[in-house]
Amino acid sequence: LKGDFREIIVSPSDIPCNRPENIPDGQFDPDPKDEYYVDSVVIYRCNRDFSLIGNSTITCITTEDGRNGKWNLPAPECKKVKCDPPKVENGKLTNLPKPSYTYNEAISFECNSGYSAVGNLHIKCGANSSWVPAIPECVKDNCTSPVPPAHSTLKEDVPKEGYPVGTVLTYHCISGYEYIPETNPSITCLNTSKWSEISSLCQGRKCPTPNIPNGKTDADDDDDIRLGGNVTFSCVSGFRLVGEATLKCVLKDSKVDWNREFPVCE
């Protein structure tokens, strides 16, 4: 075999990246030789009175084919960001007020007594010199905390003392109960300072059908005995009942079932 064949291995540190992008109103700390290879790190900073939008640090990494280098993130942007102090009627700032705010400065509000917040009470100065999320409102509480229908509870963890007009709350049935068909589990705070009404919402779940050989029950419909209901067994002529005649539909380990085993007809 003639010739000298050798495998050429390129170290990642030998793979170059293009020179980082220059950005208006900012700069990066260049390499002393102004040369950039895989694992090189560049840090950007903005001129005075400008805010850095994006990531200040970028790193040279290898491309998917492992042959070239690329920057892992785009260069950031330097912008003048200034948010005016927001005003919330019937509310107040919990921070010390300032004449203006710069990028990502956060502030918080609280509503006066008798008022509730619509929106987020914690906001930040965004990159477009506007508050993110939007400035909240404090609206007068018009509905007091509602009384849930029987066998239900509110989906929210801690009910409030008051709710503004237009608030929608939703109930869910407690363990062992289910929604009555075609009922709406939500209520709305109306402009009359009252909640929309729900007459009934939840009903007990059904117990298993109470059938025994050579027996019968006193129920009008064996398939519709629900939580809290009772059934009494008897036997057809020529058989006698062994066991407790009356059973109750109860909650067992979060499931609806009978409180004891069915009797038998012998």
TrEMBL record:
<feature type="domain" description="Sushi">
    <location>
        <begin position="81"/>
        <end position="140"/>
    </location>
</feature>
<dbReference type="InterPro" id="IPR051277">
    <property type="entry name" value="SEZ6_CSMD_C4BPB_Regulators"/>
</dbReference>
<keyword id="KW-0677">Repeat</keyword>
<feature type="domain" description="Sushi">
    <location>
        <begin position="141"/>
        <end position="204"/>
    </location>
</feature>
<protein>
    <submittedName>
        <fullName>Complement receptor type 1-like</fullName>
    </submittedName>
</protein>
<keyword id="KW-1015">Disulfide bond</keyword>
<dbReference type="InterPro" id="IPR035976">
    <property type="entry name" value="Sushi/SCR/CCP_sf"/>
</dbReference>
<feature type="domain" description="Sushi">
    <location>
        <begin position="15"/>
        <end position="80"/>
    </location>
</feature>
<dbReference type="InterPro" id="IPR000436">
    <property type="entry name" value="Sushi_SCR_CCP_dom"/>
</dbReference>
<feature type="domain" description="Sushi">
    <location>
        <begin position="205"/>
        <end position="266"/>
    </location>
</feature>
<keyword id="KW-0732">Signal</keyword>
<feature type="disulfide bond">
    <location>
        <begin position="111"/>
        <end position="138"/>
    </location>
</feature>
<keyword id="KW-0768">Sushi</keyword>
<feature type="disulfide bond">
    <location>
        <begin position="17"/>
        <end position="60"/>
    </location>
</feature>
<dbReference type="Pfam" id="PF00084">
    <property type="entry name" value="Sushi"/>
</dbReference>
